[in-house]
Amino acid sequence: MAAGEGVREPGQRVRDALERLDGDRDLWIATADDGRPWLVPLSFHWTGQELLLATPRRSPTYRNLAAGGEVRLALGHTRDVVVVDGEVDLPERLPDSQADAVAAAAGHDPRTQPEAGYVRVVPGRVQAWRTPAEIEGRTIMRDGRWVAEPSDG
């Protein structure tokens, strides 16, 4: 979308966000420890309802997630961003099909690394915007529910 184009309707924003979740493989994950921010890139898999990631259990990211239980994720770039705020679960294992999908996204299999820990993120709020004109109305998911059905474009 060029800077002079109109603002997307909510259904279009939902569709575009879902396409990014389905198509992208990497994101930025932001956590905090005693107010100190921690931001790192990780690969992910979108199941259609949740995001699955893996990171070493000894990493600041994993420790922060274990302590806080909440996370902020960002996909895309500054002119087409999707921001996800969600609750975290740290399962010991994933079903094989999900672990396979995480491995495919990451380009390596976390199951072969004993220190790897899985992260499941259930979105509670999702925001999406491309231009300053889209800042208003950027929230496309509230309390885990999309604000509109994805449009056909």
Beta fraction = 35-45%
**What is the H-and-E element order?**
HEEEEHEEHEEE
- Number of structural domains: 1
Major β-sheet annotation = 9 strands, antiparallel
- The CATH superfamily name is Electron Transport, Fmn-binding Protein, Chain A
Q: Summarize model confidence as the mean pLDDT.
A: 93
Q: What structural class do you assign from the helix and strand content? A: alpha+beta
Outline the structure in words.
This protein is of the alpha+beta class. The protein has a single domain (about 30-145), classed as Pnp Oxidase, Chain A. Helices cover about 20% and strands about 40% of the residues. The protein is built from 3 helices and 9 strands. A hairpin with a 2-residue loop joins strand 5 and strand 6. The longest helix is centred in the first third of the chain and has 14 residues, at about 10-25. The model has no long low-confidence stretch (mean pLDDT about 95).
